[in-house]
Design a protein that fits this description.
There is one protein chain. By secondary structure, this protein is of the alpha+beta class. The chain folds into three domains: 2-53; 66-118, no CATH class; 131-247, no CATH class. 45% of the residues lie in helices and 16% in strands. It is built from five helices and seven strands, in the order H-H-H-H-E-E-E-H-E-E-E-E. A seven-stranded antiparallel beta sheet has the order 3-2-1-4-5-6-7, covered by helices on one side. A hairpin with a 4-residue loop joins strand 1 (138-140) and strand 2. The radius of gyration is 34 Å and the shape is elongated. The termini are far apart.
Length: 268
């Protein structure tokens, strides 16, 4: 009698278990929900990666150009406070000190170069005693350099070769990269080397090389608009100084002519 009762209970529990086991549709729905959650998490992480990459790019630009760069003293004080906290082993402390030294050196050079640019003639006028102190500019295009002082070559026009070619190609490529930073999207036309018109440069011993490049304005090419880019190579990586749009039709050109004794020839 007891064995029959036990057998009946076993049969009851087996049927009850099988009745409560979900069917295939339940598992398919469960897998579908998990897959949607994983896709949503992957999309969120991709958006976060893009945001972090943009922030890293902006931080690199700020570090190179000296715009918004943190004060070196504040950074050092912050790192000293972190080192004084407990739980730092000697190896980590040595690595932090080395990182601190490199950071201080990088910030020092960044602030130094930014100060040199701010004090140079490229951003503000400088008083000169006479015309002999003027450092002339050299005009250049993609394939030609128009020299003011030809030197031993005795050619006022020559092709850029050697270090001059490498320097000017880097300057043009850097300017195009800066102009295209904000030109994003499928329908936006970007700047290229074909849009470069001409440029001028000169080398000042106390600062470095100054460059001013002129590009055709991609936003409005029909009205004589141009985009200028001013750069400086302070014996270091290039630093962006300014970009602005100019209207060629409204540009005023002043000419100074010696008319003493022959004014009648210029009348009428």
């Amino acid at each position: 009698m007891i064995s029959h009762i036990q057998r009946a209970w076993k049969i009851y529990f087996c049927f009850n278990f099988l009745w409560q086991v979900p069917n295939k549709d339940f598992f398919a729905e469960l897998l579908r929900n998990q897959e949607e959650k994983h896709k949503a998490e992957i999309g969120r992480l991709k958006d976060k990666i893009v945001q972090l990459e943009l922030e890293l790019h902006e931080a690199k630009l700020a570090a190179v150009e000296g715009v918004g760069a943190p004060n070196s003293t504040a950074v050092l004080n912050n790192q000293d406070a972190l080192l004084q906290q407990g739980g730092v082993n000697p190896d980590q402390k040595d690595a932090s000190i080395n990182c601190q030294q490199h950071t201080a050196q990088a910030l020092f050079y960044t602030e130094f170069l930014k100060g040199k640019v701010d004090a140079s003639e490229i951003t503000q006028g400088v008083s000169l005693h006479n015309e002999y102190e003027i450092i002339p500019y050299v005009r250049f295009t993609l394939k030609r350099i128009y020299l003011v002082d030809p030197g031993m070559g005795k050619r006022v026009v020559e092709k850029p070769i050697g270090f001059r070619k490498k320097d000017l190609q880097e300057v043009i490529a850097y300017s195009i990269e800066k102009l295209n930073l904000q030109r994003k999207g499928s329908g936006v036309k970007k700047y290229s080397a074909e849009d470069f018109v001409e440029g001028i440069y000169r080398t000042e011993p106390s600062l470095g090389s100054h460059y001013t490049l002129v590009f055709r304005d991609q936003n409005n090419q029909s009205n004589g608009n141009y985009q200028t880019v001013t750069l400086t190579r302070s014996f270091a990586p290039l630093q962006l100084v300014d970009t602005k749009r100019i209207q060629a039709k409204s540009e005023t050109i002043n000419l100074i002519l010696p008319l003493s004794g022959r004014t009648e020839k210029f009348q009428g």
